[in-house]
Amino acid sequence: MLSPEQASDRARDLVERARRAGADAADAVYGSNASEGIQIRLGKLEDVERSESEHIALRVFLGHRSASIGSSDLSPAALDELAARAVDMARAAPEDRYAGLAPKELLARGPFPELDLIETYEPSPQTLRAMAEEAEDAARAIAGVTNSDGASASAGSGVFALSTSHGFTGGYASTHHSISVSVVGGEGAGKQRDNAWRTAHHSGDLPPAAEIGKLAGERTVARLGSMRMKSGPMPVVFDPRVAGTLLGHLIGAMSGSSIARRSSFLLDKLEEQIFAPGIEVVERPHNPRGLRSRPFDGEGLPTVARNLVEDGRITGWLLESASARQLGLQPTGHAARNGGGAPSVSVGNVHLAAGALSPAELMADIKEGVYVTELIGQGVNGVTGDYSRGASGFRIVNGELAGPISEFTVAGNLLSMFAKLTPASDLEWYRAINVPTVRVDGMTVAGD
User: Fold this and answer.
1) Of 165, 168, 106, which Cα lies nearest the Cα of 321?
2) N or C: which end of the chain has fewer CB within 10 A?
3) What is the spatial distance between Cα 235 and Cα 255, in angstroms, rounded to a whole number?
4) Average pLDDT over residues 251-270
5) Distance (Å, whole) CA 277 – CA 256
6) Where would I find the Metalloprotease TldD/E C-terminal domain in this sequence (predicted)?
7) How far is 357 from 375, CA to CA, in rounded Å?
8) Is the pLDDT of residue 441 over 80?
9) Looking at the whole model, is its pTM more than 0.90?
């Protein structure tokens, strides 16, 4: 695998080849990944996987015409052909007056922040297997667990580099380590399944494998004897495992492309009170060891800390250059590159600021409600904000969890849900989107 410096040189070289082939402007993105994983089931080895990939993508501009192309062949002859083909494709492309590189005056300048995304330790296959076995053994040791879907442990590394024809070149590397386990509890028609997993840039940031396995087993057994839920309007409490998806819908609706296409439920809501006063959604792209930490975005612009929501109000849209031009605004450093093609939008590490009440206090006055630990399906309309998803979890009766439930639906509209959202105090910091337990009043639960 290339170093970030070598990867940056490769991307810069491809841009120069594109300029020699006739491109007015160009950018190139290099990405490589290597990973090794071990999967076991019922104590026996099921799979050993080692993967390595390397890819470079080129985007060229001829005036307002553009084209993108990529290759995993990085030989000089292949890169020359890649550049020539991209320019030929651009000549045949339709004009797009919003297409182009990011404004030169906004490009990131070093030195970049130290993000501590790299660990030199590389576990052996034997170590990975021992971790997976430890996780599964701990899960299966929980009374009531009757079978296993397997456990896995993996480790890997990656490199990203970007170069543009108007003055930006940069790259960075990261490593990752993960453990996951899924087990089954009960017998016959009463079987239930659940899981636990963790991932981090540094192996030392993972909990012990046995702790992850024990959590998977306990979650599974807690679902045994699951019943159906009656229908009606009631408060819904979202476990941190699933509460982050609510912010995911918010972020998608804040993307510049959705606003420019007028296909977002947040359209024309920029100055309005979306959440309750005091609610903050915070982006911190430079958190050391953060899962979404990055020094610059996919167009070479600096990433900066900001509040996406402040005192319950959205502070602005998430813009890459094309949508920013369409809206007459400046790009915000949220461009993402996944291989070739035009940039999309992504955020850094995001969290919903914790509230003052513990989860128990948050539920204390709920006479009848549901506590959701799993969401199923994709029933969210990004244009209208209508929300309807299958779920499972637990009943809340008189402020206490009162037994597992499944096969019900929670529904509402995201604007109404955000307005009635109350966060608890149990914020944790190991996900890309970190959200405490949240309560949303006035949702519709459809069960029996």
Assistant:
1) 106
2) C
3) 29
4) 96
5) 25
6) 231-447
7) 24
8) yes
9) yes
Report whether pLDDT(339) > 90: no
Render pLDDT for 282-322 as a digit per residue (tens, 0 to 9).
Answer: 999 999 999 999 999 999 999 999 999 999 999 999 999 99
DSSP secondary structure string, 343-394? -EE--SEEEEPP-SS-HHHHHTT-SEEEEEEEEES--B-TTT-EEEEEEEEE
- Cβ pair 329, 319 in contact under 8 A: yes
| Residues 3/68, Cβ–Cβ less than 8 Å | no
Section 408-417 average pLDDT: 97
At 239, the amino acid letter reads: D
Tokens representing residue 116 in the block: 């501590």
Q: Are residues 18 and 160 in the same domain?
A: yes
Predicted confidence (pLDDT) per residue in 191-210, tens digit = 999 999 999 999 999 999 99
- Identify the domain boundary among 221, 253, 283: 221
Q: How does strand 421-423 pair with strand 400-413?
A: unpaired
How far apart are alpha carbons 333 and 432 in whole angstroms? 17
What tokens appear for 359 in the block? 């989860």
Range of the domain at 79: 4-221
pLDDT of residue 321: 97
Q: How is residue 346 written in tokens? A: 């992504």
Q: Are 162 and 29 in contact (CB under 8 A)?
A: yes
What residues contact 35, with CB distance under 8 A and at least 6 apart? Answer: 49, 50, 51, 154, 155, 156, 157, 176
Answer yes or no: do 169 and 248 share one domain. no
